């Protein structure tokens, strides 16, 4: 392989640890720290005009890229105040949906070659939706060529089948898209714009601190290796992160895992909870923390063992059956970029304990170029 493993055991581990650099490289186009504003040109020369008249957004993607789209929906609706829907590409391409020629169609893809995402994009274009944007990690890819606008993430080559650094760089790109749309709508004050930039620029360092949790997460992984099932819970912005955590665990450790919005527990998954199913929870110190804590009590009351990723300032305490690891201070709207990292590390270490083929899990391909 052209990419060396260096001191790492697997590409996935290497790629998890490359995330601070991947983010810094992706954000380089924002200019130096002295630059306090950004322009829609980040998305291509035609972007200022195309984004100014955008009234709604449709995101198309598969797999992990779909999960970054789900996070983006929260950002776009909250910051820009315009509706955003997110669709699994293989569903959208065959569904009778409503055509809106003024909608911005965003295709998210690490490889730029995923057959369903490409077909969904072409389907949208055939139906007259030509305002298209690719968020992609490969410049010379089919999806980039197919779109009028583009934002290239600079994660570098990703080899591990389970996507990690492509995901966090997609999130950075999508946050910038939400902020740019907000600016175009006149909803982003100059000081908020400056704050967004500061938060983005500080991400690589914040992520480095999260990576220091690896030894503690590796210790937790021992508890998971013998399990058949796991449940991942999150709320709000972190619900898609719970979905991504579950996907990672499925992909590389072959443990059946489901991601759920914690408020839905009582509508089904609570029936599954007992001491043999670990429940992993993403618990940032946001406005939903108190709600989440009462959901977690419901799990404890049924004997479920809890593994909680909290923030330093989240008021959740360890007790019998409640294990807690803390990330640095709450990171506001960009918190999902940090909270996904411990879940990547957890699935990686569970797979190590189980001895599965981390970089090439059975039955899966890095890029799915046929339907
Ligand atoms: C495959 C890969 C996943 C990836 C998905 C979408 O399933 O194993 O890691 O998230 O395809 O790929 P894309 O290149 O379009 O992001």
UniProtKB/TrEMBL annotation:
Q: Which organism is it from?
A: Sterolibacterium denitrificans
Every SIS domain range? 47-187, 220-361
Q: Which gene encodes it?
A: glmS
Q: Where in the cell is it found?
A: Cytoplasm
Gene Ontology cellular component annotations, sorted alphabetically: cytosol
What name does UniProt use for this protein? Glutamine--fructose-6-phosphate aminotransferase [isomerizing]
Its main subcellular localisation, reduced to a broad class, is cytoplasm
Q: Does the keyword Transferase apply?
A: yes
Tell me one GO molecular function of this protein.
glutamine-fructose-6-phosphate transaminase (isomerizing) activity
Portion of the parent chain present: 237 to 607 of 607
